[in-house]
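Today's session is about reading a structure prediction critically. Students often jump straight to the picture, but the first step is always the sequence itself: look for stretches that repeat, for charged clusters, for runs of hydrophobic residues. Only then move on to the predicted structure, which in these notes is written as discrete structure tokens rather than atom positions. Here is the chain we will use throughout the hour.
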Amino acid sequence: MPATRKAKKTSDASMTKLFVLDTNVLMHDPTSLFRFEEHDVYIPIMTLEELDNNKKGLSEVARNARQASRTLDEIVSAVPDGIEAGISLEAPSHGLASGRLFLQTEAINVELPAGLPTAKSDNQILTVLMFLAHREPGRAVILVSKDINMRIKARALGLAAQDYFNDKVLEDSDLLYTGACELPPDFWEAHAAGMESWKNEGHTAYRVTGPLASRLLLNEFVWQEGERPFEAWVREQSGRTAVLETLIDYRHSKNNVWGIMARNREQNFALNLLMNPEIDFVTLLGQAGTGKTLLTLASGLNQVLESRRYTEIIMTRVTVPVGEDIGFLPGSEEEKMAPWMGALEDNLDVLNGSVGEGGQWGRAAAVDLVRSRIKIKSLNFMRGRTFIQKYLIIDEAQNLTPKQMKTLITRAGPGTKVVCLGNIAQIDTPYLTEGSSGLTFVVDRFKGWAHSGHITLQRGERSRLADHAAEVL
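Below is the predicted structure for this chain, in token form.
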């Protein structure tokens, strides 16, 4: 990590900080011990108690608690002598961290303000923080916690506290890659020198050289409005040279996909990604009603039933309830997932309106054929599977952690296309934010890869009521 090397070069005179970790940080990211570079890390005994209380079960939190305990055991077991002086993290972190790990090895008696119950684990961690701040007055002692109320309590007691930032891909979600950019009005004049143009299977390609070309990414869309509107995407990029290729216009009825046409520029970009066999991984972001699921399903049905590129559509999503959980559901895996797949049913109703002729019987047969090619799977049973020549749709992907996202995407076998859909403004999972969501993570990590593409859908096409509600509520 460049930041780590830079930190190591800082003068020894600068005092390192001491970070006290709350349990939820270790349960959120078991490798967080190695994310504080040259600074020291302190684990209160109550943090270990809470890890022990949360280690049972099959949830992501329980798995992380067990992993954090194993990591701590490996670090402590490697030290033959006492641990009071701290344990160097240089070797266990493979050079990522150069600070020391301290575990609470003494009983701490600090008077908490009246009204704060001492039996509560959060308050016991605060007593450790108060003790360390008093013992090391010349050093910054900082509580790191994902719990907002814990941070507020610490600050109310005059103690330093902050969120765990290392898992955040971006500080501000507005900086997230959108997948498209508008060309400036003088683009063609500034890049005219040595420009080449040729035809390629019905598309026009332009090789341009100039300052903007160096900032473009592979498979990024570019557009320009005016008398002669221009829409293209970047097919090659090297230094100050880029090759732009024009798109298929899916707004025209002759290019309809399962009866669906693009209604705006971003939807046209999305369909170019979804229908291109060279693109193995697609991410679509956008608020409710922008057409993410409809476009993805239409493209899937077209490539499964008409062009036979894939054998079937597999759809999955995270089962995080918005309100109170309604308990266990009866039936098979597909039947249990059915209540979570309302979006699939709604979009199939729209798509089935454009298929099936020959009266009521013909229409019913067509609907049955469509449904037979769509499988609904639960995330719980994905580990160890391999999908070959499938069209995999991951809906509500903003509720996945980066680790869960990796587990799902690595299920893809030969000939499989993975499409992730989501709206990072609607995260229902605790401890996940817009900056640390698995969807944000993959958008940032996959940008610029030759076989992936991303687009953020801007305009709602559901109804004027839905558009107005999204804007004012």
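Discussion point for the tutorial: Residues 1-14 have pLDDT under 50 and may be disordered.
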